[in-house]
């Protein structure tokens, strides 16, 4: 996972100016992370920019190639992708279809509008332009 990142944050928290502010129930765990660091870090998955198809990290919200701000998934926070897109039937915010389906297996509400969503009402979006160029039409 993000072991290198967790080490960096744990090391910062162990600095004298922050050390006394840490709750005792977390202090030992943070100290162990600093004492026995595992600095491996998984490479972040790359997905295509929905505008120009440039491969970029899935959590990037701006494409370095075409300089567009990327719409993000309301379920994961990752940028949307062309071939796995849906939108909440109630608020019409975009989401990654497969991730929204997974979410609805454990929860029943949209993470954006908190309305109850029926899994069968989710449909894949075929025309992604509505979400890439919202200024050209209103999203209801």
UniProtKB/TrEMBL annotation:
Keywords: Cell projection, Cilium, Cilium biogenesis/degradation, Cytoplasm, Cytoskeleton, Repeat, WD repeat
Subcellular location: Cytoplasm, Cytoskeleton, Cilium basal body
A GO cellular-component term linked to this record: cilium
GO biological process: cilium assembly; intraciliary retrograde transport
Presence of keyword Repeat: yes
Domain of life: Eukaryota
Limits of the IFT121-like zinc finger domain: 71-117
Residues passing through the membrane, by range: none
Keyword Cytoplasm: yes
Segment forming the signal sequence: none
Protein name per Swiss-Prot or TrEMBL: IFT121-like zinc finger domain-containing protein
């Amino acid at each position: 996972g993000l072991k290198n990142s967790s080490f960096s944050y744990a090391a910062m928290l162990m600095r004298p100016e922050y050390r006394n502010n840490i709750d005792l129930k977390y202090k030992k765990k943070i100290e162990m992370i600093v004492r026995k660091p595992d600095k491996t870090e998984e490479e972040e998955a790359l997905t295509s920019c929905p505008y120009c198809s440039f491969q970029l990290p899935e959590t990037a919200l701006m494409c370095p190639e075409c300089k567009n701000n990327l719409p993000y998934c309301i379920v994961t926070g990752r940028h949307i992708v062309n071939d796995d897109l849906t939108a909440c039937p109630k608020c019409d915010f975009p989401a990654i279809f497969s991730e929204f389906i997974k979410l609805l297996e454990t929860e029943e509400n949209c993470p954006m509008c908190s309305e109850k969503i029926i899994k069968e009402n989710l449909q894949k979006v075929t025309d992604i332009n509505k979400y890439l160029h919202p200024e050209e039409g209103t999203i209801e």
